[in-house]
Structures
1.
Amino acid sequence: MRREYIIFIILLGILLSAGCAENGVEEPETAVTPAENPIVPAEVPQAPAEIVENPENNTSNQTAVENLTVPETEIVENPENNTSNQTAAENLTVPEIEIVENPKNNTSNQTAAENLTVPEAEHKTVEVKIEDFAFNPDSVTISPGDTVRWTNLDLFTHTVTGPDFSSGTLRDGDSYEFTFTREGTYRYYCSIHASMEGVVTVEGVKP
């Protein structure tokens, strides 16, 4: 505004001078000194300098920060670009992924699954010695499907007699075995020597 005002005054002075020259009367030009109407450059906002806290200058620094005005940036929307971007987004198509099954692989996988066998749990055999008119050990614990083998190492004849099994007469060196398939506690004895007793405990689930 000041600049336009100065230009207007200068033009007015020129016109007045020209009019006086035509009339033969010289009028003194109105001199416009830069001091009377200084041209003030447009104020350019500057980024705030880093503020170092100083107990003595805290008040002045805080006042300077509060008085600093940051110009707002005006965002101008372009309706043409918005329309074109929206149209491009609507026209964007995502290709579908087609899953193709391979019959060869399916057959081989199915065959492999059919041929897969789960190994059965191995059954064990527990040895019990008959010696010195006793069963050694006189108590054993096994799982369903395990076997107990009794071997007579005495010079005398013995038997292994239980609720569901009986060895009959066992001479020196003879053996008898029995496979237990059900859980439970099985007590047995020697029918010839009643003081000889033993027990078999079956625990767990049959595989």
2.
Amino acid sequence: MRFITPPTRRDMPKPQLLKIAALATLIVAQYDAWGNFQYLGYCQSSNVV
């Protein structure tokens, strides 16, 4: 089974692929920031820090 295949017409154009990758990165960054914010709030409320 070969994983590397020649490009076909059904492949997504590059701009759309970049847009999807940027959107996914933005969502992950927001999720990480929210998780860190909750973690800091938990540490402060529990007097762990």
3.
Amino acid sequence: MHPTQESVNSERSAAHLVPPPSAETASSKSQAKSPSSAALINAKSTQPSKSPYVDATVDATQLYLKEIGYTPLLSAEEEVFFARTALRGNEASRKRMIESNLRLVVKIARRYINRGLSLLDLIEEGNLGLMHAVEKFDPEKGFRFSTYATWWIRQNIERGLMNQTRTIRLPVHVVKELNTYLRAERELSSKMAKEPTLEEIAALVEKPVKDVKKVMVLNEKVTSADAPLSGDSERPVVDFIADKNAQNPGYLFQSSELHRCIERWMHELSEKQQEVLSRRFGLNGFDSDTLENVGKEIGLTRERVRQIQLEALKDLKTIMGREGIASDVLSEFQ
């Protein structure tokens, strides 16, 4: 079910961290804003020190860490209680789950420092993943929330890094505007289970479509076709450019964490299923390949390879459900 505009804007406030209400209006609006929103926006709006030798970003980060430190952690019993009531739509329980795990986001975000985003921006991206995890978490699976949430926090931070770091440097005000649109795009994509249109993004950020389009095109990444694919590879990017008419399963493994998990879970599949997935998606030393080529390599028809692939993905979803991981992370594999 798609969220209402009101609910989307509410979550956007918590993630983008809209300023807290003034003292005069705090009592009437205290239920509308999460304390986590106030903490991070207060940190980001901290006035820089007059001394040229003091890093204002460090001051802002310390302010945020201090404020979120006041929220107590949940016991296992409290976690189950609040998770259950949050699933039933209790907003207070949802906020409690989020606020009690903000320190987990910080812990994970620190691992991604020096990759193109400040710590506060990394935390902001991670908070979006945390909120998504709260909505998806099923306490009846028997797993702690932190184990489940770590996946979503990492995924959102990595996606944010991928979208917000680029070769061509843009003016600061343009980057700020672009990041706003990209965050809106990720929020809508998470809620709607599909790529949002420019019109939907424009509606969420309350901007004209033409303005959003003009800025979003600046997000296209530029790289040399002769550049190495990665630091560990001597093969240039051009060697990996696929036929436009061919499928590109490699895209499905943008998340290295998902890649590692699937390789581990695959040991529970049949040998034929393991071989098909390995050849299709570039696992276990194989290069990713098309259904037709995989069929030729293992002596099966293209259609049979497709059937085995679907069966294997179905079995993987069952395994993920057993381990308390939402199966919708495999939606891109269809």
4.
Amino acid sequence: MVSNKNIAQNKFKNRTEKTLDSSQRFLNTLKRKKANGYTQNGVLLMKTLKEITNDPSLLSICLFYDVLNYPEGKKILKNSNLSKSEQIIIKKLHSLENLSIDSNIKDINKALRYFSADYRILILRITHRLLDIRNLEKFSQKKAKKIAQETLHMYVPLASRLGLHKWRHEMEDICFKYLFPRIAKKLERKFDFYRENDISCLKHTEKYIKQKLTESGIKCTLENRIKSIYSTYRKMIVKNRKFDELTDRLAIRIIVAKKDTCYRALGVIHSIMHPIPGKFKDYIGTPKENGYQSIHTVVFPLPNVTNMPIEIQIRSKEMHKECEFGVASHFHYKKDSYTMRYNKKTRADLIKNLEIIKHESPTSTQKLSHLMQSYFRGDQVLVFDSKNRVYHLTKPASALDFVCIHYKKKIAYLKSVKINGILGSLETLLQDGDVVEAQFQEKKSFSKRWIKMCHREQSKKMLLEISNE
């Protein structure tokens, strides 16, 4: 018997193939002197994006990504099989084509607004940048250097905030090797010197842990990793440690079915291997700002198993999926399409976490840091209107405060407000991620009681002026 899940997956696969085939055939029928001129970059971009998602909408957008770079691009886009919202994304991406860390404040502000309103624009920008980083040799030395610097300072933190850790590490390593070749080669020699011993330690430890967990009735999958070259260098600088003094250079991941099993597995690990004091971190109980969840513990070397300290990471399958694929792991099947499984808080957190660029990129320009600081402030609540536009209100802020900002000319005719699709009180205090929609009537409905419902001085002043008319 075929399960509902399998039926949904087959429907999605069919829709993906149909959508992409339609886009591909449309572009290929266009008469141009250079065959596949439109699709060459688009196909490469699509293949890159497929590393994290099979969403047909995003993949189709990839095929048309640079079509507006051609004189006939607008006509082609208009006649394409893309929806209006997908065409808008193409246009916004095109307007951000020359965005760089040296761009003026107006352009950077526009980018932040686009990223905030639609996460897909941000994912596609990061995908395009990864493709450029993988092909730095096609650029001039001056251009390639700028791309590498910009990627480390701008796109790596963004990828991290979206949970795209694989892409983040890849971009870091490529940029590091290009910008600091001498240091990178010196570190690579260190990696090569320890490689045989590192692989042996990981192999024996993984076998030992798997056996003990199985004996304890815990089903699991194990993976191992050697810390990336850039992460190693950064840790050496930040912690002022030598290469062979790093305790988390080698790691084993334990992936179990459920959250509570993570703690059972931790108990087994600590019973068979001695943890190093001060190296335990529970990112399940207290997730990182980008949503990362896992238990980390570092254990001492164990005779006949490993002569190196090893970091043990324990997480559930769901946590691992999100760690591997980031924001793209939130796609789920619903009514013949894949949508984001984000609640309002997660959505607001995703936008607010862009602020991390300021902290993780100390070498970014002051201009960018200043803008990020003013754009995301801790004393503000982030809300959306019915058209997904973003508003930052100083806390506390009521639903009426929002209406005073967004509907200044119509405030006297206010009938009611909806908060997250449900009728609410005008004095309701707004929370991060709330979607607020105002409803109006033909006759004036103003009441002096409204003034007490507001917290912003500007709102109170506006309502006082209306009451004195």
